[in-house]
Design brief:
mainly alpha
Length: 181
């Protein structure tokens, strides 16, 4: 279902007009399995890193690898002002656990962070590395698996004759089928 939605969206006329107008390479909007799974990986990897301007970090990956940029940008929105405190606290606790360090009671004030940054920096970024790598890798493989199973399901339904074509306009209907009323 998600695969079909991406395919329909990428064929949209307004999107083509937008890319032509601003001279955006269409491969940055491709909705195939590899491009989407890479976008999910990059977006989630950046989302778990406590840093400002995460969207610029996603855009910085463009020259090095090809991925669906809008999906990657949307994935980095996982960390937002509402989710950041909980995410970074869990990363700090995980990093402290992995390093065998005792945790410092955390207060959500800028003064506390500026005074204790040296104590929490290493455990925070160890936890960040753990979650960035594990969650983004898991999401990458999950997207690949779900995409492949969707393709296999469509192939099987076509083979068995149970495939139902998604018709959006009357003009798109095959000549031998009549519209249902």
């Amino acid at each position: 279902m998600i695969r079909k939605t991406f395919k329909n969206l990428s064929a949209h006329e307004k999107l083509k007009a937008f890319t032509d107008k601003y001279k955006i390479p269409i491969e940055y909007l491709s909705a195939n399995r590899k491009m989407v799974s890479r976008a999910v990986f990059i977006g989630l990897f950046i989302a778990f890193i406590p840093m400002p301007m995460q969207m610029l970090a996603v855009v910085a990956f463009i020259p090095f690898t090809r991925f669906n940029v809008p999906i990657a940008l949307a994935m980095c929105w996982l960390s937002n002002p509402f989710t950041m405190p909980a995410m970074y606290y869990v990363e700090y606790l995980t990093g402290s656990f992995l390093l065998g360090m005792e945790t410092t009671p955390v207060e959500m004030t800028l003064e506390w962070f500026s005074q204790n940054l040296s104590n929490i920096f290493i455990p925070l970024y160890v936890g960040t590395a753990f979650y960035s790598i594990s969650v983004s890798s898991l999401a990458y493989y999950l997207v690949n698996h779900l995409w492949r199973s969707s393709v296999k399901k469509d192939k099987d339904s076509r083979k068995n004759g149970t495939y139902i074509r998604n018709v959006t306009k009357e003009n798109d209907m095959p000549k031998d089928e009549e519209p249902k009323s």
